[in-house]
């Protein structure tokens, strides 16, 4: 069965991306759900912890073939994100699909060679492909087009002829609507801002405290905990009296090791959380203690120094 919107692609089949390093294959692959994409770079990372490690390619290819065979047996749409410029590689992929009666599509990502070469520059050292290799891959991609039908591909299409933006945006929209609860679910609710600051990986560890003895006034208190390690945070919804909001993390008082007050410092990212947990923020100049204030009270334009006076009640 073929999609009405995308007549060149079967709804379920084997889609083989063909192009030199830097052609944009992975960008195109991300327009499909991640579960449908088999990335050779990604599998190199799985078997060696380094997606650029070339001596792991053979092992990664073996894993790819195994997963592909299982997915084809289940009639699942599968995208192969690799250069795939060698005929022998493509033939093996096509044979796996044919064994299970799955249609095959070759998508030629014919990005100009100068662009492929230019894109190597910003890449990390372990992902940068030598110029002569990129040139060889590009030449092989160009020559492959005439052989693809004979290799058994049912459909051959150039990447710039595809309509992938619409399904990509549709999928992103569905995810966003679910997060906002507009699909009838509860959504992320009061975790939306947490994700914005610290990323989705933090969400399973985040717990809002239903009650707290911390002096934060109307600000909510939360905890990030994993095993014996944890951080305590407070959400500040009007820290400067002008509607500004953000998160503070609870730290040891930098002025007195025996201080019974609460020392807070703003955190803006997961990197700040890491610094707070490892002690790298213990001397942060933005720390405000509810007892000692800050080193220089004049250097407190947001009025954060006297937290005891500002916040009298615990979170309900």
Describe the secondary-structure layout.
Layout (H helix, E strand, L loop, with lengths): L13 E5 L6 H5 L7 E3 H9 L8 H17 L4 E4 L5 H13 L4 E5 L4 H6 L12 H14 L10 E4 L6 H16 L11 H7 L7 E3 L11 E7 L2 E8 L9 E6 L11 E5 L2 H9 L9 E2 L17 H4 L6
Parallel strand pairs: 1-3, 1-4, 2-3, 4-5
Antiparallel strand pairs: 6-7, 7-8, 8-9, 9-10, 10-11
Helix pairs in contact: 2-3, 3-4
In short:
By secondary structure, the chain is of the alpha/beta class. The chain is 32% helix and 16% strand. It has two domains: 14-177, 3-Layer(aba) Sandwich (Rossmann fold); 193-310, no CATH class.
Structure description:
The chain is built from ten helices and eleven strands. The strands form two sheets. It has a six-stranded antiparallel beta sheet with strand order 6-7-8-9-10-11, with helices on one face. A five-stranded parallel beta sheet has the order 2-3-1-4-5. Helix 2 (40-48) packs across helix 3. It is of the alpha/beta class and 316 residues long. It folds into two domains: 14-177, 3-Layer(aba) Sandwich (Rossmann fold); 193-310, no CATH class. It is elongated and about 80 Å long. The protein has helices at residues 25-29, 40-48, 57-73, 87-99, 113-118, 131-144, 165-180, 192-198, 270-278, 307-310, and strands at residues 14-18, 37-39, 78-81, 104-108, 155-158, 206-208, 220-226, 229-236, 246-251, 263-267, 288-289. The termini are far apart.
């Amino acid at each position: 069965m073929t999609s009405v919107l995308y007549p060149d692609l079967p709804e379920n089949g084997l889609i083989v991306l063909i192009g030199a390093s830097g052609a944009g294959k992975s960008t195109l692959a991300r327009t499909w759900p991640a579960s449908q994409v088999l990335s050779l770079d990604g599998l190199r990372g799985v078997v060696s912890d380094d997606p650029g490690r070339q001596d792991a390619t053979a092992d990664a290819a073996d894993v790819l073939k195994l997963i592909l065979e299982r997915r084809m047996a289940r009639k699942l749409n599968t995208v192969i994100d690799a250069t795939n410029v060698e005929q022998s590689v493509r033939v093996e992929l096509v044979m796996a699909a044919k064994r299970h009666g799955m249609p095959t599509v070759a998508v030629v990502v014919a990005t100009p060679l100068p662009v492929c070469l230019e894109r190597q520059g910003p890449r990390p050292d372990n992902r940068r492909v030598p110029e002569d290799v990129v040139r060889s891959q590009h030449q092989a991609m160009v020559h492959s087009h005439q052989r693809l039908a004979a290799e058994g591909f049912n459909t051959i299409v150039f990447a710039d002829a595809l309509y992938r933006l619409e399904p990509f945006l549709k999928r992103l929209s569905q995810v966003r609507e679910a997060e906002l609860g507009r699909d009838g679910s509860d959504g992320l609710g009061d975790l939306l801002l947490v994700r914005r600051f610290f990323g989705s990986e933090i969400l399973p560890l985040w717990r809002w405290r239903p009650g707290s003895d911390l002096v934060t006034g109307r600000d909510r208190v939360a905890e990030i905990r994993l095993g014996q390690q944890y951080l305590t945070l407070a959400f500040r919804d009007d820290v400067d009296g002008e509607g500004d909001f953000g998160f503070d993390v609870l730290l040891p008082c930098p002025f007195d090791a025996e201080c019974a007050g609460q020392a807070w410092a703003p955190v803006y990212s997961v990197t700040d959380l890491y610094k707070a947990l490892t002690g790298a923020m213990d001397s942060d100049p933005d720390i405000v203690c509810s007892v000692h204030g800050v080193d220089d009270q004049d250097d407190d334009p947001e009025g954060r120094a006297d937290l005891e006076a500002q916040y009298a009640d615990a979170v309900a």
